Amino acid sequence: MWKTSKSSWGMKPWWVVGFVGLVIMKVVEGFDNVNVTDMDYVKTKGFNNRPLMVGITLINGADAKGAVCLDGSLPAYHLHRGYGSGSNSWLIQLEGGGWCGNIKTCEYSKRTRHGSSNFMEKQIPFVGILSNKAEENPDFFNWNRVKIRYCDGSSFSGNSQNNAANLYFRGQRIWEAAMEDLRSKGMRYAKQALLSGCSAGGLASILHCDEFRGMFPATSKVKCLSDAGLFLDSVDVSGSRTLRRTFRDVVALHGAMGSLPRSCTSHFNPTLCFFPQYLISSVRTPLFILNAAYDTWQIQASLAPPSVDRRWNWAACRKNYARCSASQIHYLQGFRNQMLNSVRGFSRARKNGFFINSCFAHCQTERQDTWFAYNSPHIGNRGIAESVGNWFFDRVGMQANIGCAYPCDKTCHNLVFD
């Protein structure tokens, strides 16, 4: 349960692989409500207005194209139609939910909403960037807004299967089937389109950004937004690279190499091309990076996961930033510096934008209190929704917003875990 607070591996035994994978899956479970899909989140946040509830749409016929979730069930999305000035504009939000990089964790996932549409909610609240209220989502409230559910375990990439375990790794086909279905419902005529995503979905919005651009006429305004998708190839507290090994396993198991941009794989091995820092400078389509400098998912699952924190020195800090020691904060400042360095080349292109606030957070577009509210996070005098809107509509010059280092930002909605 969480709440917000205002202000080289080498060869390892098989059981270590399974243990680390399950640790990653448990961390993902802890972030389920950060990636908003159910009413429990809405109730705990105490919204003044009941949010719009949007029903699920199964992509009928997708199975005939091999586009199925981990368990073989149909993929799905939630669509709320636009109107008025937004009737020919489309916002696509890719759901996140971690990855599964071995048979054990994928078998676990296929019994959850992140691996089977049989376990997905029939209705979900549209809040934050998906809200239909102008006072909550001033720039996109009347667009056609879609949330594509995540059930493949590899950021909508990959094209493989494991017959023995009855697992289907079809992320690329799910992406293509969803796009084809939405195009048949009017998206092909879009004058404006924004591909966004949170967490693993934020990574997917980068991977598929140029592909998305290619679906529309050259006269259409098409851009991409990645929220909490800037996963870094970092050294963890033990001196290893936990997330690199996770991504290596995901790419191999899911057969994801074919989904990765050739502009990257022609220079780096496929594992590195799953890390946005090696991708973003080569993305041709305008891209906006939104990320917390002290991303709580990366602290818990990449920098200091229990699997490498053998003496449990990071147990308190993982759950509550206020309980981090001075040396741990110093370590996290180094992570922030690495994140800022990773966007240095990307920032030279005026078509791009970014908002990196010094908060302990993860996914800020899907939460109303962080996306657009009276006390939402700001850098200077601009919040997240305003910065994204200014960038998309070219209202001001390049949006390059970097917050001062912790603890100076008093507008953060920091996550604290019980």
Describe this structure in words.
Residues 1-30 form the signal peptide. GO terms for molecular function: pectin acetylesterase activity. It is found in: Secreted, Cell wall. By secondary structure, the protein is α/β, with parallel strands linked by helices. The protein has one domain (2-417). It has 13 helices and 16 strands. It has helices spanning 14-30, 39-45, 103-109, 171-184, 200-207, 209-213, 242-254, 262-265, 296-303, 315-319, 326-342, 368-371, 384-392, and strands at 2-6, 52-58, 76-80, 89-94, 123-126, 144-148, 160-162, 167-169, 192-198, 221-227, 287-292, 353-357, 378-379, 382-383, 400-402, 413-417. A ten-stranded mixed sheet has the order 5-2-3-6-4-9-10-11-12-15. The longest helix is centred in the N-terminal third of the chain and has 17 residues, at 14-30.
Short key terms for the protein model shown above:
418 residues, hydrolase, alpha/beta, signal, 13 helices, ten-stranded mixed beta sheet, cell wall, two-stranded antiparallel sheet, EC 3.1.1.-, 16 strands, cell wall biogenesis/degradation, 28% helix
